[in-house]
Structures are given as C-alpha cells and as structure tokens.
Design goal:
Length: about 260
C-alpha cells in the first residue's frame, strides 16, 4: 500500500483579492493587509476564506515499496499551478492512501479551489465510482473512509471540540513537533524571499504527521510493535542519509524530546 502524507503552506491570494475588492492600486503587501483587515471586521479573525489562499509549498512523505521519501513538490520558483498539478499527478500515479492533519478542513478544500482556478485535471482524485467501481464507497471525497485519512478528524472522533494541534500531539508522543516557523509567519517569510525556509518548515510538519500516523497504525493493530519500530527506524535512516540541515535539526530534536 502506498502512503502519501501531505501538508501545504499558503499565502494570501492577492491577485484574486484585487479583483474581488477593487484593490488594483495597492502593492502585494498592502493588498494582503487590506484583505485581512476586511476579514477581521467580518469575522473577528484575519484568517482568510479558503478560496483566497494561494499555495506556495506542498510537502509530502511517500511510503512506497521498501522506501520512504520526503520532499517538497516542484522547485522553489515553481508556480502554484505546477505544484497543484504535481500533487494530483502523484495521486494518479500511485493511487495512495492520503494522510493529513486537518486536510479535510483546510488542505484539500484549498487544493480544490486552486485546481479550479488553474484548470488542473485530477480524474483519479475526483472519481466516486464512475471510472472504478472500487471507488464507489471508498474514495478520496468520502469523509469516513480511508483513501484520505485526516488524523485530526479521526483521533477527535469527528468532534470539533475534541480537535488537537499537530504540534502538541507530536510533542506529547516524543516527536519533534513544530520547528522554526508557524503558519502565521509564512506570509512574512514569503515577502522576505525565504521560500526555501517555508518548504523546509512544511517538510518538518509532514514528518510529524507521518510519525503520528505510524503510531495510529500501531494502536489500531495495522502494525505490530516490531513493524512500528521498523517504520520509525526506516525514517530515521532516510533522514540521516539525506543529510540536510533541517533534517539534522529534526533528528536532534527527536533525540532530545
């Protein structure tokens, strides 16, 4: 079985904001400020509606055959359309089990809107049995099936008041948790040209999600204790072999957690 753990990072969609709110004379930074200010007045929070989030990074952990791979899709200068296309191409190629933390409430709806904007085709993802009868009841769009496992939803029993933060759950389990950044700081980092830092941060987030997923597989009996430990060591050795600075820091935090 192919496991595709994913996470996205987003920034304000200032191009759409200009069109929607007639902000054509403003810079990107000032347009975003105006959008967030209007949202604050409407809802009491600056958090923009999902269709006004632009994807600047998608990071994944792919567990396939006898290996695990961690990377961010595309290149640092890849456009949003390419990132979204690569994400759905991966689903078409591997038909994996998607795993996320709050992917049902945030990441996937954002991906829906961005694929709609860019005209990105994703027939496998949207199939609900028309092309493959096995997808009639167990598909990527069905909330209570496993082709997409939203760990936050599942562990909370689909009760919003029981939701937990990935950082806290990962740290509770002895994993590194969030490192170096937070989603609230991504826009400032993007404006400062720190896209590589955003991608690295996204990769550490998806690593935490992968580790929590392995513990989930253990508690529901899909992995034995020995198999769980094998998965953990496979990830450790993969990160050690990659020898990237943010992976080294992840391992150091993991060792001292």
């Amino acid at each position: 079985m192919n496991i595709f753990v994913f996470d996205i990072e987003t920034i304000p969609d200032v191009a759409s904001g200009r069109r929607l709110y007639d902000l054509h004379e403003l810079s990107d930074e000032d347009t975003a400020k105006a959008m967030m200010n209007m949202r604050q007045q409407q809802t009491g929070s600056e958090f923009l509606p999902l269709h006004l989030h632009r994807i600047c990074a998608i990071s994944v952990v792919l567990r396939h055959a006898d290996r695990v791979k961690v990377w961010s899709l595309g290149e640092p200068d890849s456009g949003e359309a390419e990132l979204v296309q690569r994400f759905f191409d991966g689903i078409d190629k591997f038909t994996p089990t998607l795993v996320s933390w709050n992917g049902g409430g945030f990441d996937l709806p954002v991906l829906h809107y961005r694929s709609l904007l860019h005209g990105v085709q994703a027939p496998r993802y949207w199939d609900t049995g028309g092309d493959d009868r096995d997808f009639k009841w167990n598909n990527y769009l069905s909330r209570y099936h496993e082709r997409h496992t939203d760990l936050m939803d599942v562990l909370a029993g689909y009760q919003m008041r029981a939701n937990a933060k990935l950082d806290e759950v990962a740290t509770m389990l002895g994993f590194p948790g969030k490192m170096g950044m937070s989603g609230a700081k991504v826009w400032d980092a993007y404006l400062a040209g720190e896209i590589e830092g955003i991608r690295n941060y996204c990769e550490t987030d998806v690593l935490n999600t992968f580790l929590v997923y392995q513990r989930f597989q253990l508690i529901r009996g899909h992995l034995t204790q020995a198999a769980y430990e094998t998965e953990i060591e496979l990830l450790r050795s993969t990160l050690e072999h990659e020898d990237k600075q943010h992976f080294r820091e992840f391992l150091e935090h993991w060792e001292t957690a």
